[in-house]
Protein backbone atom coordinates (compact mmCIF):
# COMPACT_ATOMS: atom_id res chain seq x y z
CA UNK A 1 0.00 0.00 0.00
CA UNK A 2 1.25 3.49 -0.72
CA UNK A 3 -0.32 6.58 0.85
CA UNK A 4 2.16 9.06 -0.61
CA UNK A 5 3.76 9.00 -4.01
CA UNK A 6 7.05 7.64 -2.73
CA UNK A 7 6.52 6.38 0.80
CA UNK A 8 6.00 2.64 1.02
CA UNK A 9 4.36 0.59 3.73
CA UNK A 10 4.59 -3.19 3.74
CA UNK A 11 2.82 -5.44 6.23
CA UNK A 12 4.32 -8.68 7.52
CA UNK A 13 7.49 -7.91 5.63
CA UNK A 14 10.55 -10.14 5.34
CA UNK A 15 13.78 -8.57 6.59
CA UNK A 16 15.97 -11.28 5.06
CA UNK A 17 17.45 -8.95 2.43
CA UNK A 18 17.77 -6.13 4.94
CA UNK A 19 20.30 -7.55 7.38
CA UNK A 20 23.76 -8.62 6.27
CA UNK A 21 23.76 -11.68 8.56
CA UNK A 22 20.97 -12.91 6.28
CA UNK A 23 18.59 -13.73 9.16
CA UNK A 24 15.25 -14.81 7.77
CA UNK A 25 12.99 -12.80 10.07
CA UNK A 26 9.92 -10.62 9.55
CA UNK A 27 8.63 -7.29 10.82
CA UNK A 28 4.94 -6.56 11.46
CA UNK A 29 5.41 -3.65 9.06
CA UNK A 30 8.17 -1.86 7.24
CA UNK A 31 7.86 1.79 6.28
CA UNK A 32 10.22 3.66 4.00
CA UNK A 33 10.09 7.46 4.05
CA UNK A 34 11.70 9.73 1.53
CA UNK A 35 11.62 13.11 3.25
CA UNK A 36 11.63 14.65 6.71
CA UNK A 37 8.05 15.85 6.16
CA UNK A 38 6.85 12.35 5.29
CA UNK A 39 8.48 10.92 8.39
CA UNK A 40 6.88 13.58 10.60
CA UNK A 41 3.48 12.98 9.05
CA UNK A 42 3.42 9.24 9.70
CA UNK A 43 5.02 9.10 13.15
CA UNK A 44 1.99 10.07 15.28
CA UNK A 45 -0.12 7.15 14.07
CA UNK A 46 2.60 4.55 14.02
CA UNK A 47 2.22 1.28 15.86
CA UNK A 48 4.99 0.92 18.45
CA UNK A 49 7.64 -0.19 19.12
CA UNK A 50 9.57 1.45 16.32
CA UNK A 51 12.99 0.38 15.09
CA UNK A 52 14.98 2.52 12.68
CA UNK A 53 17.31 0.51 10.46
CA UNK A 54 19.88 1.43 7.83
CA UNK A 55 21.58 -1.15 5.65
CA UNK A 56 21.28 -3.76 8.43
CA UNK A 57 25.03 -4.28 8.50
CA UNK A 58 25.33 -3.98 12.25
CA UNK A 59 22.21 -5.78 13.45
CA UNK A 60 21.57 -9.29 14.68
CA UNK A 61 17.88 -10.23 14.69
CA UNK A 62 17.10 -12.92 17.24
CA UNK A 63 13.41 -13.22 16.28
CA UNK A 64 10.68 -11.57 14.20
CA UNK A 65 10.23 -7.89 15.00
CA UNK A 66 6.81 -7.26 16.57
CA UNK A 67 6.52 -3.61 15.66
CA UNK A 68 7.29 -1.09 12.95
CA UNK A 69 10.62 -0.97 11.17
CA UNK A 70 11.49 2.40 9.65
CA UNK A 71 13.96 2.86 6.82
CA UNK A 72 15.12 6.07 5.21
CA UNK A 73 14.85 6.41 1.47
CA UNK A 74 16.26 9.94 1.54
CA UNK A 75 18.92 9.52 -1.08
CA UNK A 76 20.04 12.92 -2.29
CA UNK A 77 23.29 14.80 -1.76
CA UNK A 78 23.24 18.63 -1.67
CA UNK A 79 26.18 20.97 -1.58
CA UNK A 80 25.43 23.56 1.13
CA UNK A 81 28.42 25.84 0.70
CA UNK A 82 32.15 26.07 0.37
CA UNK A 83 35.24 27.90 1.48
CA UNK A 84 38.60 27.97 -0.24
CA UNK A 85 39.56 24.62 1.36
CA UNK A 86 36.32 22.87 2.28
CA UNK A 87 32.93 21.85 1.04
CA UNK A 88 29.83 21.36 3.22
CA UNK A 89 27.55 18.64 1.93
CA UNK A 90 24.22 17.42 3.25
CA UNK A 91 23.70 13.73 2.59
CA UNK A 92 20.42 11.82 2.96
CA UNK A 93 20.48 9.12 5.64
CA UNK A 94 19.39 6.51 3.07
CA UNK A 95 22.37 7.07 0.76
CA UNK A 96 24.53 3.95 0.61
CA UNK A 97 27.70 4.84 2.46
CA UNK A 98 30.07 3.65 -0.22
CA UNK A 99 28.13 5.52 -2.93
CA UNK A 100 28.83 8.67 -0.94
CA UNK A 101 32.54 7.76 -0.65
CA UNK A 102 32.68 7.12 -4.41
CA UNK A 103 30.93 10.47 -5.06
CA UNK A 104 33.58 12.23 -2.93
CA UNK A 105 36.41 10.50 -4.81
CA UNK A 106 34.97 11.50 -8.19
CA UNK A 107 34.53 15.10 -7.03
CA UNK A 108 38.04 15.46 -5.56
CA UNK A 109 36.83 15.67 -1.96
CA UNK A 110 39.04 14.31 0.83
CA UNK A 111 38.07 12.87 4.20
CA UNK A 112 36.21 9.60 3.71
CA UNK A 113 38.42 7.68 1.26
CA UNK A 114 39.87 5.50 4.05
CA UNK A 115 36.28 4.48 4.83
CA UNK A 116 35.75 2.97 1.38
CA UNK A 117 33.64 -0.17 1.01
CA UNK A 118 32.18 -0.15 4.51
CA UNK A 119 28.70 -1.68 4.19
CA UNK A 120 25.67 0.29 5.36
CA UNK A 121 24.09 3.70 4.90
CA UNK A 122 24.93 7.28 5.76
CA UNK A 123 22.46 7.59 8.66
CA UNK A 124 23.98 4.63 10.47
CA UNK A 125 27.51 5.93 9.87
CA UNK A 126 26.66 8.83 12.16
CA UNK A 127 25.05 6.65 14.82
CA UNK A 128 27.80 4.05 14.81
CA UNK A 129 30.77 6.36 14.19
CA UNK A 130 32.13 3.88 11.66
CA UNK A 131 35.89 3.70 11.39
CA UNK A 132 38.71 2.09 9.46
CA UNK A 133 42.37 2.67 8.58
CA UNK A 134 42.92 5.49 11.03
CA UNK A 135 39.79 7.51 10.18
CA UNK A 136 36.38 7.70 11.84
CA UNK A 137 33.13 9.20 10.54
CA UNK A 138 33.29 11.75 13.36
CA UNK A 139 36.38 13.30 11.74
CA UNK A 140 34.18 14.70 8.94
CA UNK A 141 30.73 15.01 10.57
CA UNK A 142 29.58 18.56 11.27
CA UNK A 143 25.88 18.13 12.10
CA UNK A 144 23.40 15.24 12.35
CA UNK A 145 19.80 16.16 11.45
CA UNK A 146 17.09 14.09 13.08
CA UNK A 147 13.43 13.74 13.92
CA UNK A 148 12.39 12.78 17.45
CA UNK A 149 10.35 9.58 17.27
CA UNK A 150 8.25 10.61 20.30
CA UNK A 151 7.13 14.16 19.55
CA UNK A 152 8.04 14.51 15.82
CA UNK A 153 10.19 17.58 16.46
CA UNK A 154 13.22 18.17 14.27
CA UNK A 155 16.53 18.43 16.05
CA UNK A 156 20.00 19.16 14.69
CA UNK A 157 22.83 17.70 16.74
CA UNK A 158 26.12 19.59 16.53
CA UNK A 159 29.30 17.55 16.35
CA UNK A 160 29.82 18.22 20.06
CA UNK A 161 26.31 17.06 20.97
CA UNK A 162 26.84 13.75 19.18
CA UNK A 163 29.42 12.85 21.89
CA UNK A 164 31.53 10.75 19.59
CA UNK A 165 34.08 8.21 20.77
CA UNK A 166 35.38 4.92 19.34
CA UNK A 167 32.29 3.27 17.78
CA UNK A 168 30.10 5.34 20.13
CA UNK A 169 27.72 8.28 19.94
CA UNK A 170 24.88 9.76 21.94
CA UNK A 171 22.51 7.90 19.55
CA UNK A 172 23.86 4.52 20.73
CA UNK A 173 23.81 5.45 24.40
CA UNK A 174 21.77 8.12 26.25
CA UNK A 175 19.39 8.71 23.30
CA UNK A 176 19.27 5.18 21.94
CA UNK A 177 16.21 4.54 19.77
CA UNK A 178 14.82 8.05 20.27
CA UNK A 179 15.78 9.87 17.06
CA UNK A 180 15.65 8.98 13.37
CA UNK A 181 18.52 10.44 11.37
CA UNK A 182 17.33 12.21 8.23
CA UNK A 183 20.51 13.92 6.98
CA UNK A 184 24.18 14.12 7.90
CA UNK A 185 26.19 17.25 7.11
CA UNK A 186 29.84 16.54 6.35
CA UNK A 187 32.80 18.87 5.92
CA UNK A 188 35.14 17.58 3.23
CA UNK A 189 38.50 18.92 2.16
CA UNK A 190 39.21 20.19 -1.34
CA UNK A 191 42.90 20.06 -0.42
CA UNK A 192 44.62 16.65 -0.47
CA UNK A 193 44.87 15.21 3.05
CA UNK A 194 46.04 11.61 2.72
CA UNK A 195 46.09 9.61 5.95
CA UNK A 196 48.18 6.55 5.37
CA UNK A 197 49.52 5.73 8.84
CA UNK A 198 47.53 2.52 9.38
CA UNK A 199 49.18 -0.85 8.76
CA UNK A 200 50.23 -1.54 5.19
CA UNK A 201 48.13 1.22 3.58
CA UNK A 202 51.05 3.52 2.72
CA UNK A 203 53.05 0.71 1.07
CA UNK A 204 50.02 -0.37 -0.91
CA UNK A 205 49.32 3.19 -2.12
CA UNK A 206 52.97 3.80 -3.05
CA UNK A 207 52.96 0.57 -5.04
CA UNK A 208 49.99 1.96 -6.99
CA UNK A 209 51.83 5.18 -7.86
CA UNK A 210 51.17 7.58 -4.97
CA UNK A 211 48.47 8.99 -2.71
CA UNK A 212 45.69 10.06 -5.06
CA UNK A 213 42.09 9.74 -3.90
CA UNK A 214 41.54 6.96 -6.43
CA UNK A 215 44.60 5.00 -5.33
CA UNK A 216 43.74 5.25 -1.64
CA UNK A 217 40.18 4.13 -2.33
CA UNK A 218 41.42 1.22 -4.45
CA UNK A 219 44.01 0.19 -1.84
CA UNK A 220 41.49 0.24 1.02
CA UNK A 221 39.01 -1.79 -1.01
CA UNK A 222 41.76 -4.32 -1.80
CA UNK A 223 42.84 -4.68 1.83
CA UNK A 224 39.24 -5.06 3.00
CA UNK A 225 38.47 -7.68 0.34
CA UNK A 226 41.52 -9.70 1.38
CA UNK A 227 40.45 -9.79 5.06
CA UNK A 228 36.70 -9.36 5.31
CA UNK A 229 33.98 -11.65 3.96
CA UNK A 230 31.47 -10.29 1.42
CA UNK A 231 28.07 -10.37 3.17
CA UNK A 232 26.41 -11.29 -0.13
CA UNK A 233 28.40 -14.53 -0.11
CA UNK A 234 28.77 -15.23 3.61
CA UNK A 235 26.38 -13.55 6.07
CA UNK A 236 28.22 -11.34 8.56
CA UNK A 237 28.12 -7.90 10.18
CA UNK A 238 31.79 -6.89 9.95
CA UNK A 239 33.51 -6.65 13.30
CA UNK A 240 31.25 -8.46 15.74
CA UNK A 241 33.19 -7.17 18.75
CA UNK A 242 34.79 -3.84 19.58
CA UNK A 243 38.48 -3.70 20.28
CA UNK A 244 38.68 -3.55 24.08
CA UNK A 245 40.31 -0.56 25.75
CA UNK A 246 42.29 -1.37 28.90
CA UNK A 247 44.41 0.69 31.30
CA UNK A 248 48.14 0.98 30.80
CA UNK A 249 48.67 -0.98 34.02
CA UNK A 250 46.45 -3.84 32.76
CA UNK A 251 48.32 -3.74 29.46
CA UNK A 252 51.72 -4.05 31.19
CA UNK A 253 50.51 -7.16 33.01
CA UNK A 254 49.16 -8.64 29.75
CA UNK A 255 52.42 -7.95 27.91
CA UNK A 256 54.43 -9.80 30.58
CA UNK A 257 52.64 -13.01 29.61
CA UNK A 258 52.22 -12.16 25.90
CA UNK A 259 55.18 -10.02 24.74
CA UNK A 260 53.88 -9.91 21.15
CA UNK A 261 50.42 -8.54 21.94
CA UNK A 262 49.60 -5.81 19.36
CA UNK A 263 48.20 -2.51 20.67
CA UNK A 264 47.20 1.02 19.76
CA UNK A 265 47.09 4.11 21.99
CA UNK A 266 43.60 5.08 23.19
CA UNK A 267 42.35 8.33 24.77
CA UNK A 268 43.20 8.99 28.42
CA UNK A 269 46.52 7.10 28.32
CA UNK A 270 44.66 3.80 27.85
CA UNK A 271 45.52 1.04 25.39
CA UNK A 272 43.39 -0.59 22.69
CA UNK A 273 44.03 -4.28 22.05
CA UNK A 274 42.74 -5.92 18.85
CA UNK A 275 39.85 -8.25 19.70
CA UNK A 276 40.84 -10.32 16.63
CA UNK A 277 44.19 -11.10 18.22
CA UNK A 278 42.61 -12.10 21.57
CA UNK A 279 40.10 -14.37 19.82
CA UNK A 280 42.79 -15.94 17.64
CA UNK A 281 45.01 -16.59 20.69
CA UNK A 282 42.01 -18.16 22.43
CA UNK A 283 41.96 -20.66 19.57
CA UNK A 284 38.75 -19.56 17.87
CA UNK A 285 39.93 -18.29 14.49
CA UNK A 286 38.29 -20.36 11.74
CA UNK A 287 36.34 -22.51 14.23
CA UNK A 288 32.58 -23.13 14.15
CA UNK A 289 29.83 -23.81 16.63
CA UNK A 290 26.97 -25.27 14.59
CA UNK A 291 26.16 -22.96 11.66
CA UNK A 292 27.96 -19.99 13.27
CA UNK A 293 31.70 -19.58 12.73
CA UNK A 294 34.66 -17.29 13.30
CA UNK A 295 35.91 -16.06 9.94
CA UNK A 296 39.16 -17.74 8.95
CA UNK A 297 40.93 -14.54 7.84
CA UNK A 298 39.80 -12.07 10.53
CA UNK A 299 38.84 -13.43 13.93
CA UNK A 300 36.64 -10.56 15.04
CA UNK A 301 34.13 -11.30 12.29
CA UNK A 302 31.46 -13.93 13.01
CA UNK A 303 29.79 -15.51 9.99
CA UNK A 304 26.59 -17.38 9.20
CA UNK A 305 27.77 -20.45 7.32
CA UNK A 306 24.19 -21.28 6.33
CA UNK A 307 20.86 -21.20 8.14
CA UNK A 308 22.19 -19.83 11.42
CA UNK A 309 19.67 -18.15 13.72
CA UNK A 310 20.41 -15.17 15.93
CA UNK A 311 20.59 -17.61 18.86
CA UNK A 312 23.33 -19.64 17.08
CA UNK A 313 25.44 -16.52 16.57
CA UNK A 314 24.91 -15.40 20.17
CA UNK A 315 25.88 -18.85 21.49
CA UNK A 316 29.19 -18.57 19.62
CA UNK A 317 29.72 -14.95 20.72
CA UNK A 318 29.03 -15.80 24.39
CA UNK A 319 31.42 -18.76 24.26
CA UNK A 320 34.16 -16.55 22.84
CA UNK A 321 33.50 -13.80 25.41
CA UNK A 322 33.74 -16.39 28.22
CA UNK A 323 36.94 -17.99 26.95
CA UNK A 324 38.69 -14.67 26.22
CA UNK A 325 37.75 -13.54 29.74
CA UNK A 326 39.16 -16.75 31.25
CA UNK A 327 42.41 -16.52 29.30
CA UNK A 328 43.14 -12.78 29.40
CA UNK A 329 40.83 -11.30 32.06
CA UNK A 330 39.42 -8.97 29.37
CA UNK A 331 35.68 -8.69 28.70
CA UNK A 332 34.82 -8.21 25.02
CA UNK A 333 31.79 -6.08 24.14
CA UNK A 334 29.79 -6.55 20.99
CA UNK A 335 29.74 -3.92 18.27
CA UNK A 336 26.70 -5.54 16.69
CA UNK A 337 23.27 -4.63 18.13
CA UNK A 338 21.02 -7.51 19.14
CA UNK A 339 17.36 -6.97 18.23
N1 LIG B 1 44.70 -9.64 14.48
C1 LIG B 1 45.02 -10.96 14.75
N2 LIG B 1 44.17 -11.93 14.30
C2 LIG B 1 43.05 -11.66 13.61
C3 LIG B 1 42.74 -10.32 13.35
C4 LIG B 1 43.56 -9.32 13.80
O1 LIG B 1 46.03 -11.24 15.37
O2 LIG B 1 42.36 -12.60 13.24
C5 LIG B 1 45.59 -8.57 14.95
C6 LIG B 1 46.79 -8.33 14.06
O3 LIG B 1 47.89 -8.06 14.89
C7 LIG B 1 46.47 -7.06 13.32
C8 LIG B 1 45.61 -6.33 14.34
O4 LIG B 1 44.90 -7.35 15.02
O5 LIG B 1 47.62 -6.36 13.01
C9 LIG B 1 44.63 -5.35 13.73
O6 LIG B 1 43.87 -6.03 12.73
P1 LIG B 1 43.09 -5.22 11.60
O7 LIG B 1 43.99 -4.23 10.98
O8 LIG B 1 42.41 -6.19 10.71
O9 LIG B 1 42.06 -4.35 12.41
P2 LIG B 1 41.11 -4.68 13.63
O10 LIG B 1 41.57 -3.89 14.81
O11 LIG B 1 40.95 -6.13 13.80
C10 LIG B 1 39.56 -2.63 13.15
C11 LIG B 1 38.11 -2.34 12.92
C12 LIG B 1 37.70 -2.74 11.51
C13 LIG B 1 38.55 -1.95 10.54
C14 LIG B 1 40.03 -2.27 10.81
C15 LIG B 1 40.95 -1.43 9.96
C16 LIG B 1 37.07 -2.53 15.09
C17 LIG B 1 36.15 -3.32 15.97
N3 LIG B 1 37.30 -3.04 13.89
O12 LIG B 1 39.74 -4.04 13.11
O13 LIG B 1 36.35 -2.36 11.34
O14 LIG B 1 38.24 -2.28 9.19
O15 LIG B 1 40.34 -1.94 12.19
O16 LIG B 1 40.97 -0.13 10.42
O17 LIG B 1 37.54 -1.48 15.51
C18 LIG B 1 34.06 -3.04 11.34
O18 LIG B 1 33.86 -2.20 12.21
O19 LIG B 1 33.13 -3.76 10.89
C19 LIG B 1 35.42 -3.24 10.82
C20 LIG B 1 35.70 -4.19 9.95
Provide an overview of this structure:
By secondary structure, the chain is of the alpha+beta class. Helices cover 24% and strands 28% of the residues. It has 8 helices and 20 strands. Helix 4 crosses helix 5. The radius of gyration is 20 Å and the shape is globular. Uridine-diphosphate-2(N-acetylglucosaminyl) butyric acid binds next to strand 13 and helix 7.
What is the compact description of this entry?
This protein has 8 helices and 20 strands.
Topology:
Elements lengths: L7 E7 L11 E8 L2 H7 L7 E4 L5 E2 L4 E8 L4 E6 L3 E7 L4 H10 L15 H7 L2 E2 L2 E2 L4 E8 L5 E5 L20 E11 L11 H8 L4 H15 L7 E5 L5 E2 L1 H10 L6 E3 L3 E3 L2 H7 L6 E2 L2 E3 L6 E4 L5 H19 L8 E2 L1
Parallel strand pairs: 2-5, 3-5, 4-20
Antiparallel strand pairs: 1-2, 6-7, 7-12, 8-9, 10-11, 10-12, 13-19, 14-16, 15-16, 17-18, 18-19
Helix pairs in contact: 4-5
The structure holds uridine-diphosphate-2(N-acetylglucosaminyl) butyric acid.
Uridine-diphosphate-2(N-acetylglucosaminyl) butyric acid binds next to strand 13 and helix 7.
Amino acid sequence: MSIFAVMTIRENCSLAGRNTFGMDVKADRLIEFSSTEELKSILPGLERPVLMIGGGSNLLFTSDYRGTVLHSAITHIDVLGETEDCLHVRVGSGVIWDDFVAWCAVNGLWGVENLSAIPGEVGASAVQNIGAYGVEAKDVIDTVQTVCLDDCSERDFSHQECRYAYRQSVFKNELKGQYAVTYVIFILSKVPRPRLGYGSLEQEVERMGGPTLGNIRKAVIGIRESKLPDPKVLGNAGSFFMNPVITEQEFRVLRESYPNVPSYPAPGGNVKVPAGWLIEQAGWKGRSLGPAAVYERQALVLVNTGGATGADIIRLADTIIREVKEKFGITLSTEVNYI
